[in-house]
Write a structure and sequence with these properties.
By secondary structure, this protein is α+β, with helices and mostly antiparallel strands. The protein has helices spanning about 35-45, 85-90, 125-135, 180-200, 200-210, 250-260, and strands at about 20, 50-55, 60-70, 75-80, 95-100, 115-125, 150-165, 165-170, 220-225, 230-235, 235-240.
Length: about 260
């Protein structure tokens, strides 16, 4: 199943390499989550457009709601105002945690997936991160240029994935193979231009597959990462997971064409 950002259970087909801690034998629960816990973690995280941000306020915990996007290596990207309490907290102590909730629509949220990312958060001036954030949150362009706002990035150290009762796994970073993240960061801009300018039929089909209604609704490909792509039309954004990560032997265009089973122009 492929659905709008924040929902859906479309499978990915990435590896589960890296160091897992306290991992229990894997089973597929009733909700249909894949047996690969790292894959499930990445899918839940990429689908999230908001999170609970935990910071330290004078030695006491403080939690706030933030919107976010993700870099290719799954580092959270935040647009924060220096007037906000959580930003002042981060300036004093950059350690933080983010809770990403994938349980929307479940009668019992405890049976659904969620991810906690822990690490340090610092301001970043890379314009590429700003573009990725605005691709997920087009409406934020109205205030992103205000003097008190800036892009911040979490350097993830560990991640905790809970897939339901009795299914909790810790992972150490990196959560995405560095070679995959570097490849996508290097070719994303060119791939977006190629696909948006040269393959409008493919973009329309992708949007329809993601729940964007009939083809031809003014959709554009807004971002591509190792786990999927984002589409936007005005302020509406859709998330479409991929079943195979693009690499040098399999370009983003080829992956997307295979996904829809079409050689659209």
């Amino acid at each position: 199943m492929i659905s709008k950002t924040g929902r859906g259970t479309a499978p990915l087909n990435s590896g589960d390499g890296g160091k897992a801690m306290n991992e229990k034998p894997e089973t597929v629960p009733a909700g249909g989550l894949p047996a690969n816990n790292r894959t499930a973690l990445r899918r839940v995280a990429r689908a999230a457009r908001k999170a609970a941000l935990a910071t330290s306020m004078e030695g006491r915990p403080y939690v706030s709601l933030v919107t976010l996007a993700f870099d290719h290596d799954l580092s959270p990207i935040l647009l924060l105002s220096r007037l906000a309490d959580h930003t002042r907290n981060l300036l004093a102590d950059g350690r933080a945690a983010l809770l990403l909730d994938g349980t929307d629509g479940l009668a019992n949220p405890q049976t659904g997936p969620r991810v906690t990312l822990t690490g340090t958060v610092a301001e970043e001036g890379d314009p590429r991160l700003r573009r990725r954030f605005l691709a997920r949150h087009p409406g934020a362009a109205l205030y992103a240029g205000f003097g008190d706002f800036a892009i911040w990035r979490m350097n993830v150290e560990r991640a905790h994935f809970v897939g339901g009762f009795g299914r909790a796994v810790w992972f150490d970073a990196p959560l995405v193979p560095p070679a995959d993240a570097a490849f996508m960061a290097g070719i994303e801009e060119a791939a977006l231009a190629e696909i948006n300018d040269g393959h409008p039929g493919l973009v329309a089909t992708l949007a329809a597959r993601a729940g964007g209604g009939p083809a031809g609704g003014g959709w554009r490909l807004a971002g591509i990462d190792p786990d999927g792509c984002d589409l936007e039309a005005g302020e509406e954004v859709l998330r479409l997971p991929l079943d195979q990560s693009p690499d040098e032997a399999r370009s983003p265009l080829a992956c997307l064409q295979t996904l829809v089973g079409s050689q659209s122009n």
